[in-house]
Amino acid sequence: MKKNLCLFLLLILNYEVVLSQDNKENPIIYLDVLLGGGGNQEVSGINFGTSINYQSNTNLFTYRMQYVSEKKEDPNFLEAILVIPYFLGGDSLNEYALLYGKRFIFNGHALSVSAGLSTNLIKYSKTDNDDIVLKRDNYLAIPFEINFHFFKTIKRRYRMFYRLISIGKSTGFGRSIGVKLYGSFGKFNYVGLGLNFGLGWHKVY
């Protein structure tokens, strides 16, 4: 997930330089990072995710990775204090998905609906005759998501450190925030809801 974010930032910074030199229209391309909650009967808890999105006309193409993690039954003191490790290493669901959908832009906000195909790996424990059995399953599923997010309406200089410092020239590149309803239908259905934080070009400026 960190590698994808770093690569995305390098690509868009380089592309921003090309756009500013040639005065071309920007593409609609952005990265989202998800923090939410959800799951299914086998695994439920905190959800992490990231997705790269590209829009052409109203067509939206998305590659997403998501991780559903259940809290540990017996965390140590450090895991409980730091919170995040408390949700790592237990029952989990990993998803890698390609989605296609429609995205409609209304000046400073947008609504999108997408579905596609994913490969999923679930690891969970079940009680069988008073014994705890660890199970693991790979399967294909149909992922879906509904997004609603807000972003800037006009080109502005990019701001850092709680918007105190502005850098560079006016640009369409910026942040977004929104809500995502997501999940998948397959051997193990799951559903979740979370906050989405975006970075990129969210419309043609």
TrEMBL record:
<protein>
    <recommendedName>
        <fullName>Outer membrane protein beta-barrel domain-containing protein</fullName>
    </recommendedName>
</protein>
<feature type="signal peptide">
    <location>
        <begin position="1"/>
        <end position="20"/>
    </location>
</feature>
<keyword id="KW-0732">Signal</keyword>
